[in-house]
Amino acid sequence: MGLARSWSIGLHGVEGDLVEIEADVGIGLPGLSLVGLPDAALAEARDRVRAAVVNSGQIWPNRKITLALSPATLPKQGSSYDLALACGVLAADDRLAADALEGVVLLGELALDGRIRDVRGVLPCVMAARRAGVKRVVVPANALDEAGLVDGVELFGASHLCEVLAWLRREGDLPGPETRPRSRSRPPIDDLADVVGQEPARRAIEVAAAGGHHLLFVGPPGSGKTMLARRLTGLLPDLVVEEAMEVAAVRSLAGALPPDEELPITPPFVAPHHGVSAAALVGGGSGLARPGAVSMAHRGVLFLDEVFEFGPHLLDCLRTPLEEGEVRLARKDGVVRYPARFQLVMAANPCPCAPPRPADCQCGPNQLRRYAGRLSGPMLDRVDLRVVFEAVGSLDRGPDETPEDTATVRGRVLAARERARERWRASGWLSNAEVPGPALRRHVPIPRDAAMDLDRKLRSGLLTARGLDRCLRVAWTLCDLRGGERPDAADVHAALELKHEGSAV
After folding, report:
1. DSSP states of 424-438
2. Same structural domain for residues 151 and 227?
């Protein structure tokens, strides 16, 4: 009879807390009580853990067992606590030395025969353990490569409960991650030179990449909207290690991180179908919510093709993530936050019938109004650049036409990004799109003639205060692309044209 402690990690979103598991084996009727706000999957651990211990050749204490998970007020979910629960019970029954568990985080689900199964979220769990100061972490063997993406922690992989018990008793060793150089080579990407014509759209996507701005493409089918949108990630800067860890942590929670995945270097590109549910788009589910497409697109591009086919309520769900860069989901088990700082690119046909030639459109005024009305005014106001595509007239470029490739345009984009980063370095903003409006106006006043033009549009209702701030951000990006010191009137006017080009909707 005794008291022992083991440790695991409780996740809420991409953040995690160190969970202390106290195991008490005492006098009373045989049974097991699990306290500390467990969910249904965790409450069932009493049966999994007992069977795994017995089938691993260990003796299960025929006494009253109490397992307390602390902090008691933190909701616990999932099956990743199984391994820590089993080791805690055996230590409390003097089958293990209690000090063997000190400073060790144990993660993994137990099968009835003692095998250790994979669990979701191993990467953010290891990151949370490192933040808590824990130096040793045991994870499922299949998740060892994923956990190895985190530096500063001694990692061990196990495939069976017997292996962990032998390691804790110092009767055997557990393998660590392979020591191999971390490869972060840029994978092959689609080249911008493949796009035929559409010079205004090519210019808009360069501006969007340079400043982190949101885009709306409107044009007939087959004009290159999707093709151009998919080339945006090739223009964006590579992810730094901290950003890559954020992206990998979200993928791990969603179960979308392959076992042998290296740290990503290219920003993600996520394109959900227009039949997607709200939970799949922004996150959701029972208990504590899972990440959705907006979080999977964190630090990358979220592409909504045929955007007018999305339900209006789905599009309005994006308004808060676009402004704040995160998703907050409230459920009965608590509130979770997922990162969602992405670039939004939307593409749409000009009308429901979408003929190759605009002159062949058969849609009536009311039908057109209902079609475009699915994109609300507040949502449209958050779009920085709007581009109208023309139908492609010929695929023959001509002998003298040599369109710029991705490498050439990306060079200008990276130079503009570096200018913006240096300008806003003291405030911590990485791109012009992240800078609040008051800071834009306070940093360098815009030219008087440009300011008067903006004031006229504000008074006439053609521009909102939010739209004005977005125009200023685009003007700064245009200034960075040409290597200027401050936006001039031409930059501001060009930004206004890009926001309202061709009356896209």
Report:
1. TGGGT--SGGGS-HH
2. no
